[in-house]
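Q: What residues go here?
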């Protein structure tokens, strides 16, 4: 019995090492925004994205802090949700392909310094892992001479809701899957100890 456990452990360790050390066959995801330099608050940035793993589900694109540790590190209401197609190209779930930039994300002033915020790509299967990102360089507030258009609160709420529902549902579904996996592991471990 001990020999079987040791052999199984060695096989698993070897397989893990081979997978971890193997060169990646797929190219890194490439995010191509319409503009990243001299951007302004309220500006809509068009994006295209490819190089994702084929058929990758629940891929979010949005304005985020450079490091993501919590959902609040990204502008969730302004993020876009989509899936990768069979060739690894990102397709929006609602057809939208523009992210509207905000002044702050997760308590960070995006206009304070170049790269203070980014356009980032994450998968809701692992939201803390940034698949790729592009730093944003905002113009200074004094340099901005065109005022942002005024929008009533009803229209603003309708605009921000357009892609938000799918994102919230995706995050909730990912949490349920993770909790289910943890519960399954706990039950399996209890059965083995009896």
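A:
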């Amino acid at each position: 019995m001990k020999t079987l456990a040791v052999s199984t452990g060695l096989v698993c360790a070897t397989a893990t090492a081979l997978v971890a050390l193997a060169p990646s066959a797929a190219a890194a995801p490439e995010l191509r925004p319409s503009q990243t330099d001299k951007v302004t608050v309220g500006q809509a940035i068009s994006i295209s994205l490819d190089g994702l793993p084929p058929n990758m589900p629940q891929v979010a694109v949005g304005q985020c802090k450079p490091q993501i540790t919590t959902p609040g590190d990204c502008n969730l209401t302004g993020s876009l949700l989509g899936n990768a197609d069979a060739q690894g190209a990102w397709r929006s779930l609602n057809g939208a392909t523009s992210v509207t930039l905000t002044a702050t994300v997760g308590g960070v002033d995006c206009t304070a310094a170049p790269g203070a915020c980014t356009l980032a790509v994450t998968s809701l299967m692992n939201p803390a892992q940034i698949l790729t990102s592009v730093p944003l360089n905002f113009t200074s507030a004094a340099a901005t001479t065109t005022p942002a258009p005024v929008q009533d609160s009803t229209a603003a709420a309708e605009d921000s809701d357009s892609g938000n529902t799918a994102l919230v549902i995706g995050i909730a579904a990912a949490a349920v899957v993770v909790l289910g996996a943890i519960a399954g592991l706990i039950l399996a471990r209890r059965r083995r100890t009896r």
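A: Context that may help when evaluating the design: The CA atoms of residues 44 and 55 lie 27 Å apart. The chain is about 30% helix and 25% strand.
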